[in-house]
Amino acid sequence: MNAELQVAWCRRHPKQETTTMTTFADFHARSISDSERNAFWAEQAKLVDWKIAPTEVVDYSNPPFARWFPDGVTNLCHNALDRHLPALQDQPALIAISTETDTERTYTYGELHAEVQRMAAVLQSFGVQKGDRVQIYMPMVAEAVFAMLASVRLGAIHSVVFGGFASGSLASRIDDAQPKVIVSTDAGSRGGRVVAYKPLLDEALQLSSHKPGAVLMVNRGLAPMQMQAGRDHDWAALRALHLDAQVPCTWVQSTDPSYILYTSGTTGKPKGVQRDTGGYTVALASSMDHIFHGKPGDTYFCTSDIGWVVGHSYIIYAPLIAGMATVLYEGLPVRPDAGIWWSIVEKYKVTHMFSAPTAIRVLKKQDPSFLTKYDLSSLQALWLAGEPLDEPTAQWISSAIGVPIVDNYWQTETGWPIMTLCNGVEKQASRFGSPGKAVYGYNVKLIDEATGQELTGANEKGVLAIEGPLPPGCLQTVWGDDERFVNTYWKSIPGRMVYSTFDWGIRDADGYYFILGRTDDVINVAGHRLGTREIEESISGHPAIAEVAVVGVADKLKGQAAMAFAVVRDPRSVETAEQRSKLEAEVMKQVDGQLGAVARPSRVLFVTTLPKTRSGKLLRRALQAVAENRDPGDLTTMEDPGALQQVKELVLQG
Ligand code: AMP
């Protein structure tokens, strides 16, 4: 890194020298103790620029609602772009690479700033202002990043909907977020196959009750678009009218929301995770120092998607807040060949890489020579998150690329890691199978599910919970539904108000945690979190289906796969193998059309009855165990033991 930049960075971050000398245990203890928490986070708050610096650190007078830096005034886009302009104007900020369209473009901080202002001016021309929602339904293209940054620049709240979702999922999010404007595109592309977005968007807008004032379309020239006069507008034409736009940042309270990001829960209705502005900016800036140790001149390559939380935090905001260059990659990890990621590392001298275990398992099936073909000497470490990291995968990639592999565990709700190794504070050895220790700011507890008692012994299994206040950066509430926030997350454990992660875990004698799977009906397919209820609701909408249960079953590549067991209304409709495969395909198509291919079950198997208790409750865990060829455990409450036998036979047949 250039010496001048190093000086500029250190000047901005005077606390650097002191924190690296402390032990992690002390650092963590200070961050959560009642007497030192405020001083700790006041120090972290200096990492970001404030229009009005906060005098109060956290207002926890109305638990579990934590208001971080409540009297501070700032702007997320200012911290990601404007503050860097004096030092980094001509340094790369966004490197947009698409192996789908064979395009590559680097935007410097100055250029990205100009594009974001053009987008902000266009949004303003539609009347977007502070507090309005802007929904973004886009693939991994630079304009999606402009739209996100432009929204927060105006004090508006963005809500990115993953491009793999179909019209039903999009419509429910439109109705919940009620956007003033939707920004979208003609199409995405996956593995060379064009996926038209506009028809899905049009269908979603037919389905939704809320109608946005304007739809801004980015035409990539991949698929024809039917533009609706008066509603749909062309980005290129409007951009041309605002080439010299100067749109100052709208200063907002630290507690004003920056975005909503929907995630799956145990009901069919997705939850809008609402993030603040100041707390999030501080959390990300501080994570770049203490977890990722990134600085200006470094290049961050996160292979997630902007539709997921990892993409929000570590493709866009955190690297830019830290003054780094960030890679936005549209394409598969194996196309044109399995060396593509590593060729990007070589070409752009990537220092930090962040991916998911599933992607590494995909690479593991390819020719290993791709991993040694490129110069990876710039790379400092590979962080992996989103799902359990199995030991063989970690070992394989670690020895193949010769850099440390750092697991990190977190959730859409938290916005940044709950557990990992904070090597920027103190270097600590990793343990295979463990995402590490509780990150500073997180007062993690293991709780006995039945009694609510804290488990303090080594290797005791409990529900992973977090004592309030949640640290900065975590969800403020569920968008528009404070009650759901409290009831879902803070009331699931008897006798105490703690945040439940809904994950099982254990902690060893040295404080390393191990994640043992979900306590609820959420499943994790290739790092994507899916609610089984949502998939069940979509399948039950098929006229031939009377009842259905969806469970997650272990899958070698994706961690878990969704498997559906359906009871049909008329048994004669699934008598022959041909009828069954036809109906299975129809059901899958229905899920594809409503929720998107990401939620499509790997199999739909037809049964005559589902395993239930005598009181009619579905025995989901027993069903899952049998589907995974495991012992279903205690079945004394079961109504009809034959139901599981049938499942077993079907699973064995494949
Ligand atoms: P999401 O909100 O989509 O990021 O999903 C969060 C869930 O993914 C967590 O509650 C865990 O069940 C799982 N998860 C995320 N990261 C890890 C990890 N490093 N190890 C094990 N499970 C993880």
From TrEMBL:
GO biological process, one term: propionate catabolic process, 2-methylcitrate cycle
Record-level Gene Ontology MF annotations: ATP binding; propionate-CoA ligase activity
Domain called AMP-binding enzyme C-terminal: residue spans: 534-617
SUPFAM superfamilies: Acetyl-CoA synthetase-like
Pfam family name, one: AMP-binding
Domain of life: Bacteria
The entry's keywords: ATP-binding, Ligase, Nucleotide-binding
Residue intervals of the Acetyl-coenzyme A synthetase N-terminal domain: 26-80
Domain AMP-dependent synthetase/ligase residues, every copy: 89-469
Presence of the UniProt keyword Membrane in the record: no
Protein family: Belongs to the ATP-dependent AMP-binding enzyme family.
Entries under PANTHER family matching the protein: ACYL-COA SYNTHETASE (PTHR43347), ACYL-COA SYNTHETASE SHORT-CHAIN FAMILY MEMBER 3, MITOCHONDRIAL (PTHR43347:SF3)
Name of the protein in its database record: Propionate--CoA ligase
Organism listed in the record: Comamonas terrigena
